[in-house]
Amino acid sequence: MKTADLSEKYLELVSKAELVDYGPARGTIVIRPYAYAIWERVQEVFNKKMKVAGIENAYFPLFIPLSLLQKEKEHVEGFAPELWLVTHGGGEKLAEPLVVRPTSETIMYTMYSKWVQSWRDLPILINQWNNVVRFEKRTFPFLRTSEFLWQEGHTAHKNEEEAIAMQEQALEWYRQIYEDYYGVAVVLGKKSESEKFAGAKTSYTVEALMPDGKALQGGTSHNLGQNFSKSFDVTFQDQAGKTDYVWQTSWGLSTRSLGGLIMSHMDDKGLFFPPEIAPIQVVVVPIWGKDDVKVKEGIKSLKKTLEEFRVKYDERDIYTPGWKFNYWELKGVPLRIEIGPRDVDSNKVVVARLDTGDKTTVPMEQLTEWIKNTLKEQQVEALSKTKKYLAEHTHIVDTYDEFKKIMLGDKGFVRAFWCGNKDCEAKIKAETKATTRCLPLDAKEEKGECVYCKSPANYRWHFAQAY
Hints:
By secondary structure, this protein is of the alpha+beta class. It is 36% helix and 28% strand. The protein has 14 helices and 25 strands. The strands form six sheets. The protein has an eleven-stranded mixed β-sheet, with helices on both faces. The chain has a five-stranded mixed β-sheet with strand order 16-15-17-18-19, sandwiched between helices.
């Protein structure tokens, strides 16, 4: 697919595959059941990881007094352009405007200041699944919407070592979601001072590369240091009797990640969802004929055989098998089973792979094991494909002319020396629309010259145009 057609095809597919519809309010979408099932799968997987680490789910209010947001200077400045304010309620003007939650640091840390007195109250390990709203000038389903869903973890610790360990653990969880479930290769790295979360000491990110060469910030984890605990007076008495401020983290993964999942694996025919995250792993399409009773018996037997998989049985009699094949291909189901009277007689079924288009006749007694192995293979190949794309579209450059040429062409990640100067960073962005995506966590120190100003530089940063 040509990258110029990617956005148009994406919009077509998310609609035709019944993933989203557009809400009546500007910049909002309705997440339809098929797409929401993917988000439920993310919740299921992520909740298991968090609970092993002792993190509990809670819920905090949607409305935040504006004065709370103003307690942390960097935070309010960072979010000011995106805020939605409620100024009236019950037909009357409010004494103080309420911010509709853009993120929950301020409301949660107000409560943490009440809950923490001693080192015995630490750590606080809380996550919430919720919605947030931010004003977006240009919207795009999943990738940029005025309202989106996410999880946001907020922890408080007695020292920075614990906070950094939590920050790194959250980032690793995000890598696992993208690579082990979405089948999307990512780069793990640290954000620049300009690009980090407003009010954070450091921000880590997972960055994915979309088929049009643009980067997608897939999830972030932040070491907030003691910035917010000082603003919100979250203090504790340590074991020596000394009073100190807690060390905090926040980290989030949102439904924008579903946009990255969709875009990474779609093609001209439709979607493809890697088996680990697919809402439906196998669709069964009956081939009705003269002996429908026999086919129904075959389906009954299949239901016992396929119990451990996420299966849809499309027994609708108003559509032809060919129509159903196209429908489920569009929706990205990894495997399709076709079963007709002759298949029942021979105790075999025909299985079609969406990713390769191959069809195989499989004996019923071998079907469970065959499906297990094939789903694993599809999952591995999905990640291999995106790893190959990432490698082929990550460019090492030493001159600004090379840098600009790539950004005018197929784009991708550019690995270039940068001196760390904010002015250089801003000028590069203004001239090429590329931003510093991250400094990879495994980056090796080198000696070089800034790609823009030629000043000494010690690391190659990842640059890219981004969604």
